[in-house]
UniProtKB/TrEMBL annotation:
One Pfam family from the record: DUF7824
Domain DUF7824: 413-603
Protein name: Secreted protein
InterPro entries associated with the record: DUF7824, DUF7825
Positions of the DUF7825 domain: 683-795
Domain of life the protein comes from: Bacteria
Length: 883
């Protein structure tokens, strides 16, 4: 036993195997406890420790010295030995002398392990061969089988040859179709061709190595089951490679109908193609074709719908007797969201309506025609031989979401235990401004009242932070980091590290004296003000604790109630506490001045305090909050940016670190590249100036423009918060929303739509300004019409139809003017989609009047989407129905 342990510890695997071969089962079992102890010891050893060279020998020895199948399987597949396993051949060597039933048990236990356990396929296959047990069809075994054959190209031969020589081919090939998320594995290393998995399986089916009927059924069943896109793509490719005969296709009509209804767009298209060919050859009954039409015409993909209408037209032309059954199915498209599709379906009905013999079918078509857009209903009535109903006056009512009400912040956690829980939650997530402000205020309050209890409650939370176990010179990097703070958790970490004594007083003094760094970027003014407050807070915790924070907002937007601030100053005065300059400056920037009556009343109370801070607050409250800022537009490539002039109010009487907030904002003077890449900190910038959102929006405008111009992601998350904030919603806010509506990623466009709806609900949306901005951005190439069309369509779907029309009526003339002046110029791609949304909004809202340059577009030749939608919009604005 000692010889075996010495060989294992020294990592001499071959010697350990030799010793194991000469031992009895009893001697092996006697070694196992010491092997377990060695395993425990190695679990805690560093990765670079020399002792870890024992792992391969330990792996094989532990497997050989156990008698239980469950224990052996667990040892062999253990995660702590995954990177130091011995070869499957060695394991098979030491296990090969066991009973076949025992080996079969181990085999199936290993095969049932998750794929992440990475049990070698060669080991499982070898155990199958030794035990003679049935082949497992678990996910781990099947994936291992695929990887073994697919990655064996270096052994020569084709994949088809290797699979044909496998004795378990039929069983494992059948299991392949039952294995989830296998598509990516089957596509490597070749997606197509004779040496790909799809090519090899098709060849094996052709030569009879695989049963054709079973393979086709399994492939179709896998498509019907759905799953990841990769799986669907692979098995559809296999189905096409199998080249089904007409009889095989006919046998599976029900399956094709189901795939056409519920499959992905690509799969539905294939099913539609198969059924279409059967229908044109007369091998599909009218009832089946009607079922196919009911399924496909309900889908949103215009290509599938158009193809189905073309198919119906061909069948109706060949067989006049099918009109009663097929035309009502074609009328399913009358309710499609795309008016072009509606018109195609109506043309089909117009062409074949004279073949209707059933009054029931005609009545069904008349009822379906009510779903058509107003401009097509007269034509439908004429085609069906009924009197057109007079259009009812549009009784439109705009439906906007309720304007969000600001939520008041609950008081700081009352106990240190509750505070510790909220601190842990804030560190583990991205806390809102309200969450972080409550936590900071709670830390200041409890530090002032009972330091020992606070530190005791925080110990389980702070002991897991990187700075708590680090050396002092590592934690002092907080004070010298040139990049500043980019995440809310870093602000909280500074305060917590100060409480725990991990940031020295010298570091805090140095940071306060040196001030925050100007990064030379357009965000620098906001970040400096935010960081200055945090560093001053940490310094006061160490040198002169405060009873609470003056600047904790009253509402979640960051605004502070002026009466509440007066009460806080009064409490400070009674306690004899010294006010922090940075904390008071932030309180001034947050205090609400929009309600002039409330501000004047609070100013009188502040003046009555008789303190310097009370006098300063009284003057601040009676000053009129700036309504607008001197600004001008500047262009940079395809971008349109805003430059703001100087705001002297934000530079007089505030600490130096806050002065940059009032300095001019340039579109070109600041660096375009900075470390402020995280979107998590942007809501805190807005909370620095919650009643001056235009200033914040101007500094964020380049980031917002990148959503549309550079296809970046995430910056639009600030737009709903900007819409909920206070102050003027001017050029910068509207331009930011415009860029968001044209963003590359859907989630950013949805955020911009939310912002648009909030502004509209609050009565702050300037539709003319936003619409004109969008028109100019499209002309410059910053915003793509297709993206904008999707955004405004989503906004209109919420009920804001009139609001969207108010925007588009100012966007479209800018774009249509170019077509009118340039003559044969190619229109921007997606302009027809924008016109379609505009037409729908005009129809629903009952808008009337003329749109500049629309007539020239509507009078263009052809029947393109652009022209048809321009005609539809013109008719709607004129109050006409198509004749």
């Amino acid at each position: 036993m000692s010889s075996l342990m010495a060989a294992v510890r020294a990592g001499r695997t071959a010697e350990a195997v030799s010793l194991l071969d000469g031992m009895t089962d009893t001697e092996r079992r006697a070694c196992f406890p010491e092997l377990k102890e060695l395993r425990k010891e190695l679990r805690t050893a560093p990765w670079n420790a020399t002792s870890r060279r024992a792992l391969p020998a330990l792996h094989v020895a532990g497997a050989a010295c156990q008698t239980g199948a469950a224990g052996v399987a667990s040892w062999v597949a253990a995660a702590d030995m995954r990177w130091s396993r011995v070869s499957p051949a060695l394991l098979l060597h030491v296990l090969g002398d066991r009973d076949t039933d025992w080996l079969a048990d181990v085999t199936h236990r290993l095969a049932q392990r998750p794929v992440s356990a990475s049990v070698p396929y060669e080991l499982m296959a070898g155990l199958v061969r030794l035990s003679g047990c049935p082949v497992p069809t678990t996910e781990a075994y099947v994936r291992g089988w695929v990887g073994h054959h697919g990655g064996s190209w270096q052994r020569g031969g084709t994949l088809c040859d290797r699979l044909r020589s496998d004795p378990h081919l039929r069983l494992l090939a059948a299991a392949l179709f039952e294995t989830a998320d296998i598509g990516g594995t089957l596509e490597w290393p070749n997606q197509e061709g004779p040496d790909s998995w799809t090519g090899a399986l098709a060849q094996l089916t052709a030569v009879g190595a695989l049963d054709r009927s079973a393979t086709v059924d399994a492939c179709v069943a896998r498509l019907l089951r759905g799953g990841p896109t990769t799986d669907q793509r692979v098995f559809l490719r296999l189905l096409k490679t199998l080249a089904l005969t007409r009889d095989e296709e006919h046998e599976r009509i029900a399956d094709w109908l189901a795939l056409a209804s519920d499959g992905t767009s690509t799969i539905a298209s294939h099913a539609q193609t198969v059924l279409g060919a059967l229908a044109l050859d007369g091998e599909l009954t009218p009832r089946n074709l009607a079922d196919l039409s009911d399924a496909v015409l309900f889908r949103t993909e215009r290509k599938l719908v158009r193809t189905q209408l073309v198919l119906l037209g061909k069948v109706l032309t060949r067989d006049r007797t099918t009109a009663d059954e097929l035309l009502p199915s074609a009328a399913q498209a009358f309710g499609h969201s795309d008016s072009d599709v509606q018109e195609r379906a109506l043309k089909l009905v117009e062409r074949h309506a004279d073949r209707l013999s059933s009054a029931e079918a005609r009545a069904e078509l008349v009822a379906a025609a009510e779903q058509l857009i107003p401009g097509l209903r007269v034509r439908a009535a004429r085609a069906l031989g009924v009197s057109p109903t007079a259009p009812e006056p549009v009784a439109y009512e705009e439906v906007l979401p309720p304007a969000p009400e600001p939520t008041r912040l609950p008081p700081a956690p009352a106990t240190v235990e509750e505070l510790a829980e909220e601190v842990g939650a804030a560190l583990a997530t991205e806390p809102t401004v309200a969450d972080l402000e409550r936590v900071l205020d709670g830390l200041v309050r409890h530090w002032y009242d009972d330091r020992e209890s606070l530190l005791e409650a925080l110990e389980p939370v702070t002991s897991r932070r990187w700075w708590d176990a680090a050396e002092a010179h590592w934690t002092d990097r907080f004070g010298s980091a040139p990049r500043g703070l980019s995440h809310p958790s870093e602000m909280l970490d500074i305060v917590l590290a100060t409480l725990r004594g991990k940031l020295s007083t010298a570091t805090l003094d140095s940071r306060i004296q040196r001030g925050t760094k100007d990064h030379g970027c357009v965000h620098s003014a906001l970040s400096r003000a935010l960081e200055s407050r945090v560093w001053n807070l940490a310094h006061r915790i160490r040198t002169d604790p405060m009873p609470f924070l003056l600047s904790t907002p009253t509402w979640g937007t960051g605004l502070l109630d002026p009466t509440e601030l007066v009460q806080r100053l009064d409490t400070y005065q009674r306690l004899g506490a010294r006010v922090s300059d940075a904390d008071f400056a932030q309180a001034l920037l947050r205090v609400r001045r929009g309600d002039r009556e409330e501000a004047a009343s609070a100013a009188r109370g502040a003046a009555a305090l008789g303190s310097p801070e009370g006098t300063r607050l009284a003057r601040w409250l009676v000053c009129e909050a700036p309504v607008s800022f001197v600004s001008r537009r500047r262009t940079s490539g395809s971008r349109v940016l805003i430059e703001l002039g100087e705001v002297m109010e934000l530079q007089a009487g505030l600490p130096a670190e806050f002065h940059p907030l009032g300095r001019p904002v340039s579109a070109f003077g600041e660096s375009r590249y900075c470390h402020h890449w995280s979107s998590a900190v942007r809501p805190y910038w807005l909370a620095v100036l919650p009643e001056r959102r235009e200033l914040v929006a101007a500094r964020l405008l380049r980031d917002l423009s990148a959503l549309a111009v550079d296809d970046t992601r995430g910056a639009a998350a600030i737009l709903p918060l900007l819409a909920e904030a206070d102050g003027e919603a001017g050029e910068a806010v509207h331009l930011g929303v415009a860029y968001g509506l044209g963003a590359r990623h859907p989630e950013d466009r949805l955020a911009a739509v939310d912002a648009l709806l909030v502004l509209a609900a609050r009565g702050q949306l300037d539709g003319a300004r936003l619409g004109t901005d969008l028109g100019q951005l499209i002309r410059r190439g910053a915003v793509k019409p297709q993206r904008l069309a999707e955004s405004v369509r989503n906004a209109a779907a919420t009920g804001a139809t009139s609001c969207v029309w108010g925007i588009l009526r100012n966007t479209l003339p800018v774009l249509l003017a170019d077509l009118a002046t340039a003559g044969s110029a190619t229109p921007p791609r997606g302009l027809g989609d924008l016109l379609a949304v505009a037409a729908e909004c005009a129809e629903r809202s009952g808008a009337r009047g003329e749109l500049p340059h629309l007539a020239q577009t509507a009078d263009r030749r052809g029947a393109s989407r652009l022209v048809t939608q321009a005609r539809r919009l013109r008719s709607s604005l004129a109050g006409e129905l198509a004749a």
